[in-house]
Design a protein that fits this description.
With 100 residues, the chain is mostly helical. It contains three helices and no strands. It has helices at 2-23, 29-53, 74-96. The mean pLDDT is 85.
Length: 100
């Protein structure tokens, strides 16, 4: 089921974004987006180098397609999700336990 991985990433990304919007009003989305874009670019460059050298491989049974140099289209969405999720976790802990 190639689309299952893509759907699960999209649903997770949307869910974390909705939870962040609802429970973390301190997140400034205009400042957050450039951070996620920069992190995404760095990790995609690392993935492209790793895939071209054969360090990384994707299972064609799980991904929609494999785009040269070997990165599936799901990878940018997964990296954006990880960036957003890490920022949401940090902000959630910051609200729960302020430095005081």
């Amino acid at each position: 089921m190639p689309g299952l991985y893509l759907v699960s990433i999209v649903v997770s990304l949307a869910g974390v974004a909705l939870l962040a919007r609802r429970f973390l009003p301190t997140i400034e989305w205009r400042r957050l987006l450039p951070v996620i874009v920069v992190v995404l670019a760095v990790f995609l460059a690392f993935d492209a180098i790793g895939a071209a050298r054969g360090w990384f491989a994707s299972n064609p049974d799980w991904v929609v397609a494999i785009v040269p140099p070997g990165i599936p289209p799901e990878e940018p969405l997964l990296l954006a999700f990880l960036g957003l999720f890490s920022i949401v976790l940090i902000e959630g802990f910051r609200l729960r336990w302020p430095r005081g």
